[in-house]
Amino acid sequence: MKTNMAGEGDRQENLSFSNTKSPCTFNLTRLRERVKEYIDKHHYDSAAFWADKLVSLSNGAVEDVYWYAQTLYSTGQYHRAAKCILNRKLHKNNMCCRYLAAKCHYECKEYQEALAILDFVEPCSIQPINKKMSFNVNQSISEPDTSTNKNMECSMNVLRGQIYEAMDNRTLAMECFKEALRQDVYCYEAFDLLVNHHMLSSQEERELIDSLPFSLQCPSEEEELVKFLYENKLKKYDRPQEAKVPESLEVLSDNLDIICNLAERHYYNCDFRECYKLTTKILNTDPYNSTCLPLHIAVMVELKKSNSLFYLAHKLVDLYPNKPVSWFAVGCYYFLIDQKEAARRYLSKATTLERTYGPAWLAFGHSFATGNEHDQAMAAYFTAAQLMKGCHLPALYIGLEYGLTNNPKLAERFFRQALSIAPDDPFVLHEMGVIAFQNEEWMKAETYFKDALRRIQVCEKQTSVPEKWEPLLNNLGHTCRKLRKLDEALEYHQQARILDPQSPSTYSAIGIVLALKGEAIEAVDYFHKALAIRRDDAFSTTMLSNLVESLMLQLSPSDDVEDSPVFMAPTGVPGFSLDDHNDSKDLPPPPMMRLTSQLEDSSVADSSAVDSSSLMIEEVEMGD
Fold first, then answer.
1. By the 8 A CB rule, do 207 and 215 touch?
2. Dist CA 17 CA 469 (whole Å)
3. Which of 23, 198, 559, 620 gets the most CB atoms within 10 Å of its CB?
């Protein structure tokens, strides 16, 4: 007996699947329940065996064909499952079969074929198998069910969006996901794809939440729950804020997903120790929580926990070698120990496994940026910007790279783009302040810096500014000094010194403010402290030399001089006169500091590289 081989479509079309045989006397209901039991227990081979026999015993009943194809899909036999449906032409008039056949082609990366099946017939003209696709044979499969129809339409819109995204048509993908969510507000998968793939800006996310028909689709007791869970997932990096669980939902406070969202807010508030404490708590309970792992890896980089990261990366690679988070962890480890080539290799592998994996693209760009390879860094950030259109971080990092390559105009352009996406992000506001300072717009720079400072002080539990924001406080001090607010400038520099006691630029900044206030002895002391931390600090060396020289000119041999004289401000030295409004003509200030990438600690610009660094607030010549 000859058999039809795969690919002989003309012979297969002649096969008849009509109900021409005599009715079966077996109890098919019991067999169907057995198939369902095997599926529930993940015995897919047993389920496929009996589902295949059910198809014959029931003369090709649609329900039995569907579940046979379902078992083939579960065992990875996607082409067989699709042919099982397409040969019987069930995709033309049955919504569930149509969806499953398209899903099989999607898994095989045959996107055009999957779209052709999904778009073959309008959704309103086909029927589902039965409500909830159960094994209830008492309900006719030809009866339309509105709720099932809507749920299947939602599923098909999610699949259609995934196909468009795989084909790099992210605009259509976004519209499909939004439509799926409107059809079924409980469809978290559509919401997750919109949010985690950064398809919407912060404002667009808020508008989407406001437009969803919660009151129409949710019972009154669930409406607040669903809305809170979705709002809790919205962008957490554009506006640092305190996360609070409503009293009516206090029972969710121990839910790992809620704790992970809280930890992410702590991370973007730069409270890394509290974030690490929460992520560690989550991973102790659920060691391979896919939502928590990228955050835990990032915070270990911030806290420089290389040993813990090494151990975690090895475990992930052993257990999940095909997941991008595993190679992201490996890349971050090599990034942390300053082996940039190895870091790039593994981060590139993570992006190969999942092209839309945003953390890996950003870290890949950082690996070039920290090595001053600005062109390659910008190439990585531009790719991230294309894949994460709703995220402002790629634009922010592109602006930083342009600033480092002395392109302030282009830097400002990308900072403004980032600001349009996330107008409340303190990182972007800080960089806009740096640009305004470089343009000598002191009032505008002060406004940006103070606005950024207000944003990071919104959390009630934070008693002080996180250490990450030490450059912001120093830059505020520089701006106030330019505006002749010397007492205020000194206060900001002192706050920065508390955050980072080992920053030589902070001591230099305090020294220059004290010199302008006429407190020359104290200024000399602070310049000595700066040089004690960094002996090759050219700025502090020059300032100290001039100060000591000016103080020596004030001394004259006299019997009446006390042992510990108090010197007045050296009025004869250029740059110390408060009458001259523009002190930058004669006196060079310490470098203006910028916040670097999220995966790095903020660092002070090296004063030995002042001539080529765009991190300086100004470059002037010293007077004789």
1. no
2. 71
3. 198
Q: Which of 138-152, 297-311, 450-464 has the highest mean pLDDT?
A: 297-311
Whether 329 and 312 have beta carbons less than 8 Å apart is answered as yes
3-state secondary structure 290-352: CCCHHHHHHHHHHCCCHHHHHHHHHHHHHHCCCCHHHHHHHHHHHHHCCCHHHHHHHHHHHHH
Is residue 367 within 8 Å of 343, Cβ to Cβ?
yes
What three-state secondary structure class fits 610?
helix
Q: Which residues, 6 or more positions from 68, have their beta carbon under 8 angstroms from its beta carbon?
A: 48, 51, 52, 54, 55, 84
Q: How many Å apart are CA 29 and CA 517, to the nearest integer?
A: 93
Under DSSP, the state recorded for 534 is -
Residue 402, token pair as written in the block: 């342009």
Could you tell me which residues come within 8 angstroms of residue 303 by beta carbon, excluding any fewer than 6 positions away?
272, 273, 276
Structure tokens at 466: 């996180």
Tell me the pLDDT tens digit for each residue of 222-267. 888 999 899 888 876 666 666 677 777 788 888 999 899 889 888 8
- Residues 88, 91, 96, 99, Cα dihedral to 10°: 130
The Cα-based distances of 139 to 49, 143, 313 in angstroms read: 25, 8, 52
Q: Per-residue pLDDT tens for 159-189?
A: 999 999 999 899 999 999 999 999 999 999 9
Task: Kindly give, in sequence order, each residue whose CB lies less than 8 Å from that of residue 165, ignoring residues fewer than 6 positions away.
Answer: 173, 193, 197, 356
> Which residues contact residue 623 at a Cβ distance below 8 angstroms, ignoring those fewer than 6 apart?
573, 574, 575, 586, 587
d(Cα 73, Cα 82) in Å, to the nearest integer?
9
- Give the per-residue SS3 of 30-82: HHHHHHHHHHHCCCHHHHHHHHHHHHHHCCCCHHHHHHHHHHHHHCCCHHHHH
Of 143, 140, 134, 157, nearest to 66 by C-alpha is: 134
